[in-house]
Amino acid sequence: MGILSRSPNYSRRLEDNGMKLLATALFSVTFGILLGLSFPSLWITKASLPQKLPCSIAISNRYSDIAVPVQATDISKIWVPSNPKGAERLPPGIIASESDLYLRRLWGNSEEELKKNPRYLVTFTVGYKQRQNIDACVKKFSDNFTIVLFHYDGITSEWDDEFEWSENVIHISVKKQTKWWYAKRFLHPDIVARYDYIFMWDEDLGVDHFDAEEYIHMVKKHGLEISQPALDPEKVCTWQITKRREHVEVHNKETNEKLGWCSNPNQPPCAAFVEIMAPVFSRNAWRCLWHMIQNDLVHGWGLDFALRRCVQEPAYEKIGIVDTQWIVHQFIPSLGSQGKEEDGKSPLQGVRDRCYMEWAMFGRRVDEAEKEYFKSLQVQTPSN
User: Transmembrane stretches, by residue range (predicted)?
Assistant: First the structure.
């Protein structure tokens, strides 16, 4: 057999072809780099994707030709600074920032359950011993009023057995607490925002000469933001300004108090003053007052002297006594029995001592807060 051999011409052709391939490869790589540098927008990266892509993409079903939309919204990116504090991550359309005390059914269509939306709220802080008083009071308020009973003695179910109306009012029971304790915890302005007026009444009030609808009429007529019914002048009154005056609808100033009690005739207790016994607040005034109620001062003594801060000046034009609708203060010290005998003091005396102590503490807090505020503005504290 002969031996196979390659000619010199054949080897030269192989070398030429290799050089051509190498040159072609180098040219292709160089062209690609130049093309990429010349058109950077053609590079598709995550950073270059549009921010507002469609919220869904179509993915073919494995077993079908139908395209199925899949939600791709990133809910962690919702942030609305104008939403209420704590709700910034919610879409504004779902926010329910206010509530009410309307009773709801457990069945049926919610849009059909409220035959009437009460526009006014009445609260009484009660003990079972004063149930006859409260029965008379509740009957003075129509279905335009939502009624709430705060029970400081823990007795609630017995009211249902005795009074038919009891099943239609709201009962809140916490032992040995005052109405201002309840108010701070259960009557936040956003909870009672549906009500035009809020009544914060004690349990020892005679209402033979009181009509709730007429009272609301007078309050609206005279533009009172904070008010109370006048008191029977034949009975004992702590403050002269609260006594009923004949031949007038309302009054708000010009009274003779005890010597030294009126340093300014246009300020409490000679003007712009109602007691904390049976006050009535507009929605706006209540929003202010709720923030002024101190969390640890439960009796509310001193609030009546500061109410003027919750209305525009002159305050006596917005705070007044309604003379056409008057009540009797019976001075029943019910909460005294809820106290505790200590250091030789009776339960009633212990409660009364705390009332005076809280009055002084509240006054100091208001004064100090005001001084700090004006100090921060570097201006002198206005004279009170």
Answer: 21-44
